[in-house]
Specification:
Structural class: alpha+beta
CATH architecture of the largest domain: 2-Layer Sandwich
Number of domains: 2
Number of strands: 8
CATH topology of the largest domain: Beta-Lactamase
Order of helices and strands: HHHEEHEEEHHHEEEH
Length: 256
């Protein structure tokens, strides 16, 4: 019952935001009540919540409400991810065809990477990953390569608050070890996951930069060590994944 009420409240919040967006102009509480058809107490309560979340803002002089800065952030991020996804897919497909392995595109949210796109190889491997899967930064090639190239203060903040969890005997489980790893990543231009997430699974990743030179995502080649037992197989794949990452970066405006 409580969950049902929460869904209804969320629907009302979206209704208020939609009415505000459709109107194009700021509105007072009474104008919003007429526009939404909601009760005064309900509308006021929703506006208080939306304002506290920076999804709405109130002008103290005119008493009018308008859409807040957090919505701009969400909108720009969503559009950016859609463009990134669209641009990356043909390049990811070529990389999959060139390597014969699974290709992943991920972004960083908090201390986890989220898989934005995934093109599987024809070789089955028992890894339960899909678009939307979240993985910790310390044991993933994409997480490490994004950390290595992001703003130092932000990277340190993530690492200082990170709870290290041992996935395999090779997982990095300390901040000092992770920092040393990131230094190596910057030297090489790519990051490696050497069975650190799951035994038998390795990967190599390269960073993707936007027009401002900020790292916004990573692309990797993921492969089974049973099929490629060579200790330094990642070196062969690294050149191809770096080429792919540069193509994507250039396509979204990076000129560095």
């Amino acid at each position: 019952m409580a969950e049902k009420n929460q869904v209804k409240t969320l629907e009302k919040c979206v209704h208020v935001l939609t009415c505000m967006a459709d109107n194009l102009e700021p509105m007072t509480l009474n104008e919003l009540i007429k526009k939404t058809g909601l009760k005064k107490t309900t509308t006021y309560r929703l506006l208080q919540a939306l304002t506290s979340l920076q999804l709405m803002e109130k002008n103290p002089e005119t008493k009018q409400y308008h859409l807040g800065p957090k919505l701009i952030y969400f909108g720009v991020t969503a559009l950016g991810n859609l463009d990134l996804h669209k641009i990356s897919l043909p390049i990811m497909t070529k990389l999959r065809n060139d390597t014969g392995e699974t290709i992943n595109l991920s972004i960083l949210k908090g201390s986890e990477i989220i898989i934005l796109a995934r093109i599987r190889s024809d070789h089955l491997f028992n890894v339960n990953l899909s678009v939307g899967s979240r993985l910790p930064v310390n044991c993933t090639s994409q997480g490490k390569v994004i950390l290595a190239y992001m703003n130092d203060d932000r990277a340190n903040e993530i690492m200082e608050n990170f709870i290290f969890e041992k996935k395999t005997e090779k997982t990095i489980v300390s901040m000092s070890a992770l920092k040393n790893e990131l230094e190596l990543v910057r030297e090489k231009g790519y990051a490696v996951n050497d069975e650190e997430l799951e035994k038998g699974l390795s990967a190599v990743a390269a960073p993707i930069f936007n027009y401002a030179g900020e790292v916004i995502a990573a692309i990797n080649v993921s492969y089974s060590t049973a099929r490629h037992p060579e200790p330094e197989m990642y070196k062969r794949f690294s050149k191809k994944v770096i080429t792919a990452s540069k193509k994507i970066s250039k396509s979204i405006g990076f000129s560095g």
